Structures are given as C-alpha cells and as structure tokens.
Amino acid sequence: FSLWYFRPxxxxxxGPCPPTWYNQPLVGRYKKHCFYExxxxxxxxxxxTF
Length: 50
Fold this sequence. Notes:
Layout: E1 4-6, E2 20-21, E3 24-30, E4 33-36, H1 40-47
Antiparallel strand pairs: 1-4, 2-3, 3-4
C-alpha cells in the first residue's frame, strides 16, 4: 500500500495539516506536504476499481 499526500495552502504560505484527509489519518509532514495512511480496505477499493 502507499501513503497519500497533498500540500495545504500556497507555496509562500503553507497551511497546517488537517488530522484527516478523505477519512485517512495523518501520519506526518515533510517540508510542505502532509502524508496520510489509507486503510487496507480503502486501498483495495482503489486498486480493484479498474
């Protein structure tokens, strides 16, 4: 499985990481990106879509 990530705010003014993103828990931040760990069930749904 993998981590999901996004960069909140703008490049000049990064925003705080929300505790969840698409119902996935926050696992950490690196520079301006927030990383989230999807559940195994969520990944199965994503990878079996096609």
